[in-house]
Structures are given as C-alpha cells and as structure tokens.
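Bumping with the actual sequence this time:
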Amino acid sequence: MSTTSTPSTTASPSSSLLGDAFRQPRAVWAIAFAATVSFMGIGLVDPILPAISTELDASPTQAMLLFTSYLFITAIAMLFTSWASSRLGVKRTLLTGLALVVVFAALCAASGSVGEIIGLRAGWGLGNALFISTALAAIVGASAGPSAGAIILYEAALGLGMAVGPLLGGLLGSVSWRAPFAGTAVLMAVGFLAITALLRAEPRPARVSPLASIRALAHPALRTLALTAVFYNFGFFTLLAYSPFPLEAAAAAQGTEFGAMGIGGVFFGWGLALAITSVLVAPVLTRRFGLLPTLVATLGLLTLVLLALALLHTSMVGMIVGIVIGGLLLGVLNTVLTETVMEATDLPRGVASSAYSGVRFLGGAVAPAVAGPLAAAAGAAAPYELAALAIVISIVMLLVGRRHLAAVGGDHGAAPHLDARSEAEAITAGDEA
C-alpha cells in the first residue's frame, strides 16, 4: 500500500472503517463471539475422527457419518431458514439455533456409541443452520454507525472460527474425544446468555413462503450453480472428512504418533488458508478476472490437488502440503461460487442463498458416506480420485449452463462486484457447513 509524505490530520477511509469495526455495542460483540464458536464447529470434529473410530470401536466410515448426518440436516434446514426467520424474527431464530447446538453438542459429549453421535449431530446441524443464516443480519441490525464496520467484525469472527476450530478440536481431543463436544456446548451457552441479555428484539422481516427456496431452483441460473456446487462440495468434504485417516496412517508409517493434536495442527493450517483466501484473495481475483473465469481456473487447480493427494497419500509431508493448498483453493471457491449465485439471478438474496446452500450441502453429506467404503474396497487413493472426477463434473456443469449465467458478466473483463454487505453474505453462505 503506497503512502504520501504529506502529513494529514484526517484518518484514512480504511483506518476509519477498522475503527468502526471495533467500536460496536456489546450486543454486536456477543453475536460475533457466538458466530466464531459456530464456525469453529466446521473443523472441530475433524481431528478426533480417528480417536472416535478407535475408542468407540467404529469403522472410519461410521466415524465420517458424523459429517453426513450434520450436513444432510443442514441442507434440508437451509431450504427453510429464510421462512423460519420471517416467522420467528431474527433474535428468536438466533436463540433457537444456539439452544439446539448447546443441547446436541452436550449430548454428543455424553454419548456411548458412534451411532448416538451420528444421530445427535443431525440436531446440531439444524441449530447451526438457523443461527448462521441470521447472524449477519443480526450484527448489522445491532451495529453502531456504518454497517461496513460491523461486517468487517463479522468476517473476522468467521475467519477466526474457521482457523481455530481444528486447533481447538486437536487440543481438547488430545485429552478426550468428548472434550471438543463439551467445550462447544459451554461456549455456545455463553453466547446464548450474552445474546439473550444484550440483543434487542427487532420487528420481524417480511413473510416468506416456506416453499420459496424450493421454487427458486426452477430458475435456470440458480439450478446450474446449485448442480455445480453439489459436485464441488463432494470434493470439498472428501478432503475435509476423509483426509484425517490417510494422514494419520502416513504419519504412523514413518514412525510418528500424530494423534488429535497433530491432525488439529494440519487442519488449523487448512482453515487459516481457507479464511485468508475467502476474505482477502477471492475479491481480488474476481475484480481482476471475473467470476466465471476465476471459478473454472480454481476448480481445475483443485482437481490437480486432489489427484496429487491420491498419488501422495502415503507421504506425511505430501498430505500436509496438499491439504493446506486445498484450503487456499477452497476459500476462493466458496466465496466466488456464492457470489456468483447472488449476481446471476434477480431472486431475493436470502431466498437464492438458502436454495443454493440447501442443494450444495447434499453433495457434502454424500461424500463422507462414500469415501469410507470406497477406500476399504479400492484402496486409500480411490476417494481422492473420485473427488477429482466430481470436480471435473462440476466444471462441465458450469460450462454447459454458461448461457444461463449471462448476468454475471464474467466472460469479458471483471464481473461487477458486490457491495460490502452482499460480499459478506456470500462469504457466510460459502463457508457455513
């Protein structure tokens, strides 16, 4: 960033914006704290999957179903969150979501079998969908001054949660596989109490039909992007949910005891990479190259990373490098895909985001259920090879439906970019899981 030599007593716009971000009412900080914990839940379970598999006498396939049940219910719930918020109001929707997470995370910590945890993670997914879908609106509504400052704070909470989740999961998981679940329940309970005390109830938004998001999928552009995202998310959650098992095996083959802490450290790097590129790099690429060219190029690179993981799955160093590079690419893709959804249709953004997220998470729900049996039947490299094929199919889906995406304008020059609030909505919908 260039500076001038002329002294000035006027603060720069960027410094003023950062000041606005941190000069917020306590209600905003309470929501930001809860949002950080909620996003931590994405990677929190990852480091303890092998431990759950060992201590509860479960197969890797059964352990990975913790992602499947969570994501499947999240997907269904996302189709109706805009309707729920219009019925309950923002504060009640937030508190309902938080309460569900507290209850089901605590029950997971007390579970005695992997089957119980799989079922309870479904309730956790419902709560997280309700909370995340309304958290941004709540932060903006409770903020003091320009909304852009509150959005920066929200993005910071999002990035911090994505990065810290696996690390906290590893730290607590080194004590017991139950500890990450109990820790999440306690932290979310603190967030629930803070929001109850500090956030004022606002007028309910305009009523939304319960079928609005499902009907939105009839729009050709939204349908094209949703189908693209189904296959993309298959690759995303193959990398996230399956990788702890070959990573630990590769470390063991080299005489290293990796454990929950080691896996947590690797996925801390993954989450940090994802957070940085989703917030800082994706906007730069879309302004420079356009949305669609950025999508196609990054999907192509992700295909190569997955194929590299298939080849290097017995190498601990190769696995670590591949996972972190995958995080860099996933951060770009999450944001750019959802931003494309918001620019490609004239549908209300909340409805379009709910419809898109609901469909895309179905691909994420299927991936962990397929990866385990496939690895057992065809070898440890096979899930990565299938994930790479899924990414290729997502590129094909995008190119075949390109004619429906004319409104995006990414073929010639940079696409028009979203304002700050809409960009935060894109990041949120892209990163929630």
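The tokens above came from a reply further down the thread. The longest helix spans residues 259-289.
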